[in-house]
Design a protein that fits this description.
binds zinc ion; 2 domains; six-stranded parallel β-sheet; Rossmann fold; 11 helices; alpha/beta; binds beta-D-galactofuranose; single chain
């Protein structure tokens, strides 16, 4: 009898233990109020980038990737459009298909976005624009924009040019300008060009000898400037709408035996102020580097966190920028910069 009681109680005991163990295992994965602990939900962001045409663009991409990282709470889906708008439209439609939480667009040009942004709006996906701006029929098609005041950049450049020409005592002499433009229809191209056109209009002696479409790339600018110089036309200034095109122009000028610098044959005005351009400026080949800040990642991340918290962010956020000329620059200043 006793043996039987012993066995029965042993069975009861082991059933009890296994029940307690099961309960413990089951509750282990649960929070206080017995709700399954959710995996930390990542914020899914689709980012359509213009391409990788310039040092500036690479720095912009690096800034976005490091800010929209998993440890910062994001799942980033990145698309490089290789400088073709149709690839950006495709990327945005893919992001809508994947039902991302946010779309970030660095638009190659200002026009052509109404339809695809209407589709994003109908899908309930907020769109943040970075860098260049978009011209849309309804500003509600995007939530916020972060970027540069490109007109102010251009005005900084022409004000510096006027001051330098005055110092050289040649303000009322003819000034022959070679204008190398960025991608047609990009806000940076439109507004940097407007600043130059306004300055030429107010300085009778200034003329634009030729406008070259350099697409923001070194290779294209080199080709166009080399062919221009072969015509034998004389110039005093190159107004180059980004540093990579300036690098191409410098290569073509030096091949043609033309010196670059403020007191040399040709003065070069350049935009972006990436590290290699600052080096060329310190060495005197570029006369002024007008800064264009590519580090939009942290601003975009904080915009998204504001939206996540139900706040309404500013519609437009301009980044801070300055300019550099040889006198201001030093090796240590250049080494401290992030791009
Ligand atoms: C400016 C940006 C331009 C840079 C170029 O914010 O759109 O595009 O000036 C880049 O270097 O290619
Ligand atoms: Zn539970």
């Amino acid at each position: 009898m006793c043996k039987r009681i012993l066995t029965a109680s042993r069975i009861l005991y082991s059933v009890l233990i296994s029940l307690i163990l099961c309960a413990a295992l089951f509750t282990a994965g649960c929070g206080q109020n017995n709700v399954p602990v959710q995996e930390e939900k990542l914020i899914r962001v689709g980012f359509s980038q213009v391409g990788s045409e310039s040092d500036w663009r690479m720095a912009n991409t690096a800034s976005m990737i490091s800010a929209l990282s998993e440890e910062n709470g994001f799942e980033l889906i990145f698309d490089n459009a290789k400088q073709r708008q149709e690839n950006q439209l495709l990327a945005i439609r893919n992001f809508i298909q994947q039902d991302v939480d946010y779309i970030v667009l660095a638009p190659i040009a200002e026009s052509g976005w109404d339809d695809v942004l209407q589709e994003a709006k109908e899908a309930g996906i907020p769109v943040i624009i970075v860098d260049r701006q978009i011209a849309v029929s309804d500003d509600d098609l995007y939530t916020s924009w972060v970027g540069s005041n490109f007109l102010a950049e251009g005005q900084r450049a022409v004000r510096w040019l006027e001051g330098t020409i005055r110092q050289q005592g040649r303000l009322n002499q003819p000034l022959r300008i070679l204008h190398i433009q960025g991608t047609d229809g990009a806000t940076a191209q439109i507004q940097r060009t407007k600043a130059l056109d306004d300055a030429v209009r107010t300085h009778p002696g200034w003329t634009i000898v030729s406008r070259l479409k350099g697409e923001y790339t070194e290779a294209k600018a080199y080709e166009l400037v080399r062919d221009f110089l072969a015509t034998g036309q004389q110039i005093d200034v190159i107004y180059s709408e980004n540093d990579n095109m300036s690098f191409g122009a410098i290569r073509a000028l030096e091949e043609a035996g033309i010196s670059c610098g403020t007191d040399k044959d040709v003065m070069i005005i350049s935009f972006d102020a990436v590290r290699d351009a600052l080096r060329q400026c310190l060495e005197g080949r570029i006369s002024i580097c007008v800064e264009c800040n590519p580090l939009h990642g942290p601003r975009v991340a904080s915009l998204i966190m504001q939206l996540e918290a139900g706040e309404i962010p500013a519609k437009l956020t301009y980044v801070d920028e300055t300019f550099f000329s040889p006198g201001i620059l030093s090796e240590e200043l250049i080494n401290e910069r992030e791009y």
